[in-house]
Every structure is written in structure tokens, then in C-alpha cells.
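User: C-alpha cells for both sequences below?

Assistant:
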Amino acid sequence: MKYTVSLEIALPREKVVQLLSDPEHMPKWLRGLVEHEPLSGAHGQVGTRSRVVMQSGQQTFEGIETITRREPVELQGLARETVVHYEREIVAKGMWSAARERFTETGPGTTLWVSENEYRFSGVLMRLVGLLMPGTFRKQSLQHMQDFKAFAEHGQDVREAQA
């Protein structure tokens, strides 16, 4: 299953990528995050592996995230037309997913975030979930992006909204 979602954020590209890749901020915008535990590498850098635990209702999901691409590494002084790539894979029981994030400067202090997502399922149950509920995955990805936008632009914390 593959899909793409996008939105514009009223912040410079460099700031957007810094906030997105900082694990200290993840609980503020990543709804359902229980734990993001570094296993190896420097967070946000290619090759970094982390244990991720998410919860949605009564369901708990655990997987290993690996940063597979971050280009360019240095974000300062980039030409306006330069596209920043930040990609990661998550492997969990019955599932593999990849998120390929692209950040483009669309104006002074404005960034377009395009997120290409791919999921592969193994096992009968996970394949059924993928076949019967593809819109749920897209909707959740867009919700995470909107939560990030609210956090980045206005300091809104999803934990406060849920309380």
C-alpha cells in the first residue's frame, strides 16, 4: 500500500526539519507515542536505530525505526530550490513501512512537507487490515502532520488536547 500526503508549514525549512528530527519534541506532536528509545547512532542521522512504541486505544504497536536518508546533512545556507530528504523505515511484527519526507521552501519562512508512505504486510491479519482499512493509514499520517504543524507554528501539545 502506498500513498502521499502533504501540507504547508509557516516556518523556514531548516526549522521544520530540526523540530521534526528532535526526539525531545516527538511526544508533543506524535499522538499515541509511548516511547522512542535510541538503540544505536545519533538521533536523526542516517543509520540511527530506535525502538518505537505507539498506542491507539487498546492496541499497542512496537517496532524498530531506522533512519535511511537525510540529505543534505547540513541545513544552513541551502539554496531555495534544494529539496531536503528525511527518510526512515519501521519494521514490526507483520509489517514493514517506509516514510519518505521531502521539504521544499515555498516562500520566505514557508515549507511544503510532502510525505510518501509505503506499507508491506505479512501474515493474514495484517494483510486484511491493509486491504480493508487503507484510508485509516492515510488519515493517521495526515493527523500526525497536522499535529506537528500545530506544534511547530503555535506550540500546541497533543498531550494537553487529550487531557
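Moving on to the next sequence.
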Amino acid sequence: MSARGATKEAILSTSISLFNQYGFEQVTINQICQEINVTKTAFYYHFKSKDELISEVFSIDNIVSNDDLLNILTVTDFADQVMKTMGIYVKHMVRLGVEMTKENYRVHLRNQILPLDKSKSPLLSDIIPTLIQRAKDEGQIRNPASAEDLLESMCNLANGVILKWAVEGGSFDVLEETRKRFEILLVVNRE
């Protein structure tokens, strides 16, 4: 890894630690730079702002691990593959806890974009609609809407459940709740 790559990773990991310890609003760019002994120029080389940094922390690039992929591929039910794949995105969105998830939504709302957006990931935009269509063809999903519309609805539903989870302080199992809501939306056939 290059020094620039190492610096970016150091900025990200240090920022997460400081945000969790002191809260997003209380942590300054100066504090982040002092903690890892880098200049503000180095920080700004990688990130234009703390908001951009938080977006990077929650970026959906490269979130599927080999274990996740194996878990998805070992399931022969296409509807279950769809829900496991969407579950990976939900886990990723909430992995840093309630406060960081709130900040992620705050940043995205200010920038007028949704955190879980199908256009940001080939897995979401290309593969999941194919799995949805296969599940529909096999009679595992009975909702008559198109695969693309169902995916869009799943993304919107996941954003809503995650936001509710954050607002309620993490008071429920967000993965279980999204899976339950996905099954209702898709009209999953469990016979």
C-alpha cells in the first residue's frame, strides 16, 4: 500500500474511533490530523470535508466479503439469496452503530441522496434484479411488480427501517426487521 493509501486508511480508522468516542460534531479535522500526525493538506488530499469522510466510511464499494458470497451461493432458494444479499447492505449500513448511522443519514439528507441507492452498486443494480426475476419465475416471489420496481422498493424499505432503527436508538434487530419487511413486500412463498 502506498503512503497515500496508508494515510487515507489511517484517517478513516482514526476518524471512526474519534467519532465514536466524542461524537461526530465534536471532532475537528485538526483533532483527526493531530491524532495521526498528518497535515491538514494530507487530510484534504483525501477528503474535502468531514461529510465526505463519513460518506466514504459508509461507502457500499467492496462490502461483500468472501464469506458473505459463500453464504449467498450456498442457498438454492432465489428469494432467500435476494434477502441475504440485501441483508449484507443493511449490516454494512449499521455496522458502526446508532450514532454513526444517524450521521450517515444526516450527511446524505443534506446532500439530497439516499444512503442505500441501487445506482451505486453493480450488485444492487444488476445481480439482485436477476435473482428477483428468477425467484418470480420459480414462484418463490409472488409480487407481480417488475424486478426493478421490487428492488427499488426494497432499497426504500431498507432505508426506512435503518432510519427508524437509528432514531429509536437501536431498540430492535434491524436485520430481522428488514428481512420480515422484505418477505411482506415480495410476497415470499414459503411452501
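User: Anything stand out in the second?

Assistant: The chain has ten helices and no strands.
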